[in-house]
Model the fold of this input.
Amino acid sequence: MLVAGARPNFMKIAPVQRAIERTGIQTTLVHTGQHYDDRMSASFFRDLAIREPEHHLGVGSASHAVQTARVMEAFEPVLLGERPDWVIVPGDVNSTLACALVCVKLKEATGVRLAHLEAGLRSNDWRMPEEVNRVLTDRCSDLLLIPSWDAAANLAAEAIDERRVAFVGNVMIDTLFDRLPAARAVALPSRMGLETGKFVVATLHRPSNVDHPPTLETCLAGLAAIAAHAPVVLPLHPRTRKQVATFGLDRLLAPLRIIEPLGYVEMLSLTEAAAAAVTDSGGVQEETTVLGVPCVTLREQTERPVTVEQGTNRLAPWPLTAEGILRETSVAIAEGRIGVGTRAPEGWDGHASERVVDAISRRMSAGTD
Ligand code: UD1
Done:
């Protein structure tokens, strides 16, 4: 049983579901409904050719407690009805932790085992909801599937038994390589009148950046400063759109090319052709690393250090200022694009899902954890 809830989950489960089914093992897909707009959810199912989920929990948006509780309440009967051998939860969103908690509490009764896809990442910032979700999901999991070796060190530091850990690489990059030809074919930049290597793509949605008026203002002012030199395209996340309106910051959007959230293929098309990305997304840090596009991350730290050490990512100077964002982006653009796959970390090779299947199959044939 695979669980998906929010936008960043879909590109992780798509290749894993296909790889499992190629072996003849059946899968069931559960969509929690944490994300529900066409542009945040259904468009990804179309772009990634994920089949309709067998179970749709329809939880929607709510406070953290309510959203997590609703997923738990709705997921428990699904698990009891289907009785899967394994549940795979990806990433670090509220749906990930909610389903992990349901599994661990039913382990004795049902024998279900839990695999966490993208285990072991740590920002060490306990104020981030994702960090809480990651740490607790890892603690509940029987099998921790790690995307990079820094994750092994993080788990060892938490005294997690290394026999529960398996290095698989980055499944999101399986999706990237699979969809890159389609992304090139849609050629979104030229349809938008943008020239390859001559524009910046930006994303912004972290609560720490968009929920506090001065920080959101700084981020948008930084993007506006960049826009004086090159077009800045900002597909606007619904959370950010809401906060811009609430805080009365609409004027700061004027210098930017604001568009609706993009589907996977169109976003990949835009990112591959950009001079640089400016982002607070974990996925964009990883994708730009493999695409060889410079990336400036608007965060104090990253749970994906391999994107800085080996990839093309850099952290904007902290605390964020508009000038700092502009300066770091200018340096990133000057360093230049280095081409797809030039600096991909180990296991970010398009074959991570096969290693996920191997890791789970080994545990299944061993019969114990
Ligand atoms: C969630 C994840 C975050 C991930 C992000 C990707 C958690 C704690 N956070 O944050 O890790 O990076 O998804 O997008 O799980 N909304 C819509 N339509 C939708 C979904 C949301 O309009 O389809 C709006 C609602 O007003 C909602 C707000 O966006 O209240 C925030 O959505 P939510 O799922 O709570 O968190 P994200 O900020 O999307």
